[in-house]
Design brief:
about 230 residues; 9 strands; two-stranded parallel ribbon; alpha/beta
């Protein structure tokens, strides 16, 4: 298990840089390991509050205040979505209750608590709305790259949120990635939600070109990691 080390840094200290500059990269030796909360690394009250807000978002409990946990220029990156500003991110969180009957958290375990990076194992079950009679349980590693401007505050924000449910990291290329980005770009256009519109100005947030990686393993800048 990784140790708590709030002196270790991984990313730039310039908070004006867009979220693309704060991407964590790793391929995993094991993925399907349920979290063990009893072994979770200790975190400060401010960091615990951040994690709890993220868990609430996963659990179909979005609020404007919880979405404010992200910087306007944030990036969210998982199997299905690549959202590169907070407006797109808000649309994703507020869309979840329209897609799922329920999303339940079955526990989380902090496995890395560095100065600018928190990683935790998360187990979540997703129950689809009718007519899809299915519940899917997913174990994933969640990585939160922290905003340098708020890292020591009571309300810490996130620059890059990555959710990995597979051993390989994301390459950001090919048709799979094109769909992820298309989905995130277009969901806000069909959402009619006043909470999402709170973040409309974030469409103008600074962005950089998507960082394309050759592969999702060591050859693509994703070192093998056991967490």
């Amino acid at each position: 298990m990784a140790a708590t080390n709030t002196d270790v840094t991984h990313f730039p200290t310039d908070a004006s840089l867009p979220g693309e500059n704060f991407e964590p990269r790793q391929s995993l030796t094991e993925v399907e390991i349920p979290p063990d909360p009893s072994k979770s690394l200790p975190v400060s009250p401010a960091r615990k509050a951040l994690i709890e807000d993220i868990i609430a978002l996963y659990s179909c409990e979005p609020t404007v205040e919880r979405v404010k946990r992200y910087t306007p220029d944030c990036v969210y990156d998982d199997q299905f979505v690549y959202a590169n500003d907070r407006y797109k991110m808000a649309a994703q969180w507020f869309a979840l209750p329209k897609l799922f009957k329920d999303s339940s958290n079955h526990g989380w375990q902090v496995v890395r608590n560095d100065r600018d990076l928190i990683q935790f194992r998360n187990e979540q079950s997703w129950t689809f709305l009718p007519p899809i009679p299915k519940t899917a349980k997913i174990n994933a590693l969640v990585s939160l790259s922290l905003d340098p401007a708020t890292i020591d505050s009571d309300f810490i924000r996130v620059k890059y949120h990555k959710d990995q449910a597979n051993d390989k990291d994301y390459s950001h290329k090919d048709l799979g990635f094109s769909f992820k980005k298309w989905q995130a770009d277009n969901v806000p256009k069909v959402m009619s939600n006043e909470n999402v519109e709170v973040f409309k100005e974030d469409k103008k947030a600074a962005k950089e070109a998507v960082k394309v990686h050759g592969a999702g393993d060591e050859s693509g800048g994703a070192p093998r990691t056991a967490v």
